[in-house]
Specification:
Blueprint: E1 10-14, E2 22-29, E3 33-36, E4 52-59, E5 62-74, E6 80-85, E7 90-91, E8 100-110, E9 113-123, E10 126-131, E11 142-149, E12 152-166, E13 169-178, H1 181-200
Antiparallel strand pairs: 1-2, 1-4, 2-3, 3-6, 4-5, 5-6, 5-7, 8-9, 8-11, 9-10, 10-13, 11-12, 12-13
Length: 202
């Protein structure tokens, strides 16, 4: 079973509204992950408590990512953030489609109802999202995904392929089944731009 990032390891973190990830260091690790408060171009966008944070790091097994929630800020001495894991620790796999962290609002509609949440990662082939409340779809359900990229609304037909529950939140993986060329190009440009920003910070 994969665990969180080692103490003193270098990681990057990203939050909703940030144009790119920021580098930082792990200060402590128990049931939660304590990181040095990242310093950089997004200081003015410092997230509030309860905001989702994505943590990425490298290991001998490949690139690793973990979704978490910012639960505390400590300003004495070395400023730190305390992160509560909010999803499984996963190895980033090589995929048919380029994929990048998204952290953009998303609406998932199926015959079971509507789910509002955040897209955690995105490609022209599908997405992974997290939702706090609502009736979750089941694997195999048809769905419509609504999200905004670069101030443009996209509505995409999808099929739900996996649903997991973790600490009261539902993580949903969808495969897009109806993406026209124009929307595919927009998603691809968004993904490549995100990857380029992350690469510059490594």
């Amino acid at each position: 079973m994969l665990s969180g990032p080692p103490i003193n390891s270098q990681v990057t973190v990203e939050a909703p509204g940030w144009p790119a990830a920021l580098p930082t260091r792990v200060e402590d690790l128990d049931d939660e992950v304590v990181i040095a408060a990242p310093v950089g171009e997004h200081d003015a966008l410092a997230p509030d408590l309860g905001v989702p944070i994505r943590v990425r790091w490298s290991s001998d097994r490949g690139p690793i990512s973990m979704d978490a929630m910012l639960v505390a800020k400590e300003l004495r001495g070395v400023p730190t953030w305390r992160l509560q894991p909010d999803g499984p620790v996963v190895i980033t796999q090589r995929r048919l489609h380029a994929r990048a962290g998204a952290l953009v609002p998303v609406v998932l509609r199926s015959y079971r109802g509507r789910l509002d949440g955040l897209a955690l990662d995105l490609s022209e082939g599908g997405m992974r999202s997290v939702h706090r409340s609502g009736v979750a779809p089941e694997p195999g359900d048809a769905a419509m995904v609504e999200l905004e990229l670069d101030d443009r609304s996209l509505v995409l037909a999808a099929e739900v392929t996996r649903v997991e529950s973790h600490q009261g939140r539902r993580h949903v993986v969808c495969r897009f089944t109806g993406v026209d060329d124009g929307d595919a190009d927009r998603i691809r440009r968004y993904v490549f731009a995100r990857q380029a920003r992350e690469q510059r910070l490594r």
